[in-house]
Amino acid sequence: MPPKSDINKAGWEQGDFPILCETCLGGNSFVRMTKQEYGRSCGICTRPFTVFRWNPGSGARYKSTVVCQTCAKIKNVCQTCLLDLEYGLPTQVRDTALAIKADAPGSDINREYFAQNMEAKMADNKSFLESGRAHSAGKDMLKKLARTDPYYKRNQANICSFFVKGECNRGTECPYRHEMPVDNELSKQNMRDRYYGKNDPVARKILAGHAAEQGLAPPEDTSITSLFLTALPATADEQSLRTTLLQSLPSVSPNSLKSIVHPLSRCAFVNFRDRATAEQAAQAWAAGVDIDGTRAGVRWGRSR
């Protein structure tokens, strides 16, 4: 155990069992793991931590933990796949639905300092994902998108690089997959983007698909940057709408909201300055948006 007098080693992590989702752990009830104390640095906070390595099942590749338990607890994610433990979804989908702002320290020193502070605060087993802005619409959205069953296909072996080059002569005895890789947006994933919930291609696909199912597919006319809210409560006014809508979009700058046109009827037009922000709002409000205890409907505006 590192001496407590050494401030750089005092935060090094020692664990007895990893924090894993059911998919990464595998379907084998008698899985065997290897444990290596301070085996590598955490992919997020860069502090050394205990690394676990195991085989999830027959035909699967060996998997290992890539982030420390402190970073996993902060975001409530699996130490290997970095997906949310409760819903099985990327953190960007969860944070968008629950209106959680993704704060990411810039430098390695700031990340380590942030992790040490969070570790001290988690002594009371307090969850950092509780948000007062988490409305019922966002929770309903997560319940609909949640992945409840394990997806063991995610553990399959990697693609054989020799097969891709046409040089593999091992045939069926090759432990790797013999198929050509697919080069698309989903193949370009970044661990820190997945953890912090920013620019995650898998999350963008899930959010866009859910919005399309709710009738909020982006219109072909790219000049449309307005959303139309219906069934607003009688107590809603322009200022309360602006406050509530910006709270439900913590990653969006207040300057991105151009204006709100709220006539006497219980509806309003929400105008954004650019199309990307409007699409982001449509994805976040696909299940509706709660305003003063009333769930308002959301639709795209129309071109003039």
UniProtKB/TrEMBL annotation:
Zn finger (C3H1-type) start-end? 154-181
Protein keywords: Metal-binding, mRNA processing, mRNA splicing, Nucleus, RNA-binding, Spliceosome, Zinc, Zinc-finger
**Annotated Pfam families:** STL11_N, Torus
Organism field: Botryobasidium botryosum (strain FD-172 SS1)
Functional note: Involved in pre-mRNA splicing. Facilitates the cooperative formation of U2/U6 helix II in association with stem II in the spliceosome. Binds to RNA.
- SMART domains of this UniProt entry? ZnF_C3H1 (SM00356)
List locations, semicolon-separated: Nucleus
Which PROSITE patterns would you find in this protein's record?
ZF_C3H1
Entry protein name: Pre-mRNA-splicing factor SLT11
Instruction: State the family named in the UniProt similarity comment for this chain.
Output: Belongs to the SLT11 family.
InterPro entries found in the cross-reference section: Cwc2/Slt11, Nucleotide-bd_a/b_plait_sf, RBD_domain_sf, STL11/RBM22-like_N, Torus, Znf_CCCH, Znf_CCCH_sf
Q: Which Gene3D superfamilies is this protein grouped with?
A: 3.30.70.330, Zinc finger, CCCH-type (4.10.1000.10)
Would I find Metal-binding among this entry's keywords? Answer: yes
| GO biological process terms, semicolon-separated | mRNA processing; RNA splicing
- GO CC field: Prp19 complex; U2-type catalytic step 1 spliceosome; U2-type catalytic step 2 spliceosome
User: Where do the C3H1-type domain residues begin and end?
Assistant: 154-181
